[in-house]
Design a protein that fits this description.
Layout (H helix, E strand, L loop, with lengths): L3 E3 L20 H4 L1 H6 L20 H19 L1 H7 L6 H4 L5 H8 L15 H4 L9 H12 L7 H30 L7 H5 L2 H6 L5 H16 L3 H14 L7 H11 L2 H25 L1 H4 L1 H8 L7 H7 L7 H25 L6 H15 L8 H11 L3 H26 L9 H27 L26 E3 L27 H5 L1
Helix pairs in contact: 3-9, 6-9, 8-13, 9-12, 12-13, 12-21, 13-15, 14-15, 14-19, 14-20, 18-23, 19-20, 20-21, 20-23, 22-23
Length: 514
């Protein structure tokens, strides 16, 4: 049986005092890939460089880069904007510039001024969907964009404007994400460049409306890092009202607060999350329940779809799994993953960082889900940067996601081009799915290794504990399991300085003399 150790509050050591003016981490000095990439703009930062003396702060540079990369993403969609969305069954796939946004302008009733959730959609318009199949806050976002769209001219002209208005609003979301990541870890503002330069963000930002939920989640993470659990909960509740996945972050927070004994803050965050979600959903739930519930019924009834390992199984089996079986099996798998993450939390030698567990939980949901749309990668980008801000590992994962991005569009081109068979056949698309799965599993494995070996965690190398952890940062453990409850016996006879991860160590006599 694993042993547990409870530490009374009365014997807690005081939390370590952290220097407020600690020098920001410079990636070009610590990351070989960042140093090599910096040669394009003059090379790594010198030892005698004067920091903090220019108007060009890291956050402002991150904002500029994020806007520039988003603009490049709009250019990548230009072939579809001018013709491919409107002419030819497969051209929007062969040019890899597909987006749901222009198609749903008319397909979900916005062109006809139908009110989402309240007005039923004609079957010939929605393909039998009946109601808008998105969560309420995303539906509000879509409706606001339609108000800003000129309802004049041809339907093609209106759809172009609708995409452009949505793109402008989504660019704001992209900037918010980059800024929040840059400010979550106070000493690592340059990590925001990983978000701003992420190829997957450039390519998928305007495929759908996921950036809204991602931006709210990133803002919630920032609020938790600033020890504001109520603001965190409100933003997380709003994010959950825009997309389902953000609510999973309460799971990691639960086990981390359990290990640290921070129950008050967890309760505040949870209650705030629930209240914010209810405030957004309750009016629609009360007066248009059938339309409100469409998102949940559609998610439940949807069959095995693109991007999942379930699709590989279904396409290679004479007896493919039923939707009911996949729903149950996927739920069991994600629960088992969550139990494994909880066990890892309680037995790790040092309490894991909040961002690490948040990434692992969302990745587990993505890996086990019955569908993986190409824009779902946006869910993981800010969490991956906060969990493992290492350029090499991030780019390896992004390369796998780029392969999947091209794979799904080439597969759809193949299936929609008739006898011409333009694109990627089924077997090729399955390999693209495998690459996506392997890339995500690789990043998960690296994060788990960092949790088990804190000295490998680039965030903790300089003595930081959990800069995105808020009240968890530097807190003492009150509940641990297994080996984490007992220090190694050989350490009792070691005469050198003991390293306590997450605490700045006093300088030795030798270092004082240097």
């Amino acid at each position: 049986m694993p042993s547990a150790e409870m530490t009374p509050a009365s014997v807690h050591e005081p939390e370590p005092v952290r220097p407020v003016t600690a020098e920001p981490v410079q990636p070009t000095r610590e990351d070989e890939v960042a140093a090599a990439g910096s040669e394009l703009i003059g090379g790594p930062l010198g030892r005698r460089a004067l920091l903090g003396t220019s108007w060009w702060t890291p956050v402002r540079i991150v904002v500029l880069v994020a806007v520039g990369m988003f603009a490049l993403g709009l250019v990548q969609k230009a072939p579809c904007y001018h013709s491919a969305w409107f002419f030819g069954a497969s051209s929007q796939y062969t040019k890899a510039c597909y987006s749901d946004i222009p198609h749903l302008y008319q397909g979900r009733g916005f062109a006809d001024h139908l009110v989402p959730y309240f007005d039923r959609l004609p079957d010939d318009m929605s393909g039998g969907m009946g109601y808008l199949e998105y969560p309420v806050l995303t539906g509000v976002f879509m409706e606001v964009a339609s108000w800003l769209t000129p309802h004049s001219g041809t339907i093609q002209h209106q759809e172009q404007w609708y995409w452009f208005v949505n793109a402008a609003l989504l660019m704001v979301c992209a900037v918010v994400i980059a800024v929040c990541v840059a400010r979550t870890h106070r000493r690592r503002p340059w990590d925001g460049l990983l978000v701003a330069l992420a190829p997957a963000v450039l390519l998928t930002a305007t495929v759908n409306w996921d950036l809204l939920a991602v931006a709210l989640t990133a803002a919630a993470m920032l609020m938790w890092a600033r020890s504001r659990p109520v603001a965190f909960g409100v933003l997380l509740g709003l994010a959950t009202a825009a997309k389902l996945y953000p609510v999973f972050l309460l799971g990691p927070l639960f086990v981390l607060c359990w290990r640290a004994g921070k129950w008050r803050e967890f309760v505040q965050a949870t209650i705030s999350t629930v209240l914010a979600w209810v405030v957004v959903n309750l009016p629609v739930m009360m007066f248009a329940f059938q339309g409100w519930s469409k998102f949940y019924s559609f998610s439940h009834d949807r069959g095995v779809d693109f991007g999942s390992f379930w699709l590989i199984w279904a396409q290679n089996s004479s007896n493919p799994p039923s939707t009911g079986f996949v729903n149950t099996a996927a739920t069991v798998l994600v629960l088992l993953c969550c139990l494994g993450i909880a066990a890892l939390t309680f037995t790790a030698p040092r309490r894991p960082r909040f961002a690490q567990l948040a990434f692992l939980v969302v990745a587990a949901f993505i890996l086990t889900n019955k569908v993986y749309s190409p824009q779902y990668v946006l869910w993981l980008v800010p969490l991956a940067v906060l969990a493992r801000p290492k350029w090499r590992d991030f780019l390896i994962w992004q390369a796998c996601e780029l392969a999947y991005f091209m794979g799904i569009w080439m597969y759809l081109a193949y299936t929609t081009s008739g006898d011409a068979h333009k694109g990627l056949p089924t077997s090729g698309y399955q390999w693209a799915i495998v690459l996506h799965l392997v890339g995500t599993l690789y990043l998960c494995a690296v994060v788990v290794r960092d949790i088990l070996m804190p000295e490998r965690d680039v965030v903790r190398r300089a003595g930081d504990d959990d800069p995105s952890g808020g009240v968890l940062d530097g807190a003492e453990d009150v509940f641990v399991l297994g080996a984490a409850a007992h220090p190694p016996r050989h350490a009792a006879h070691f005469e050198g300085p003991q390293v306590d991860w997450g605490r700045p160590q006093p300088p030795s006599s030798e270092s004082r003399s240097l």
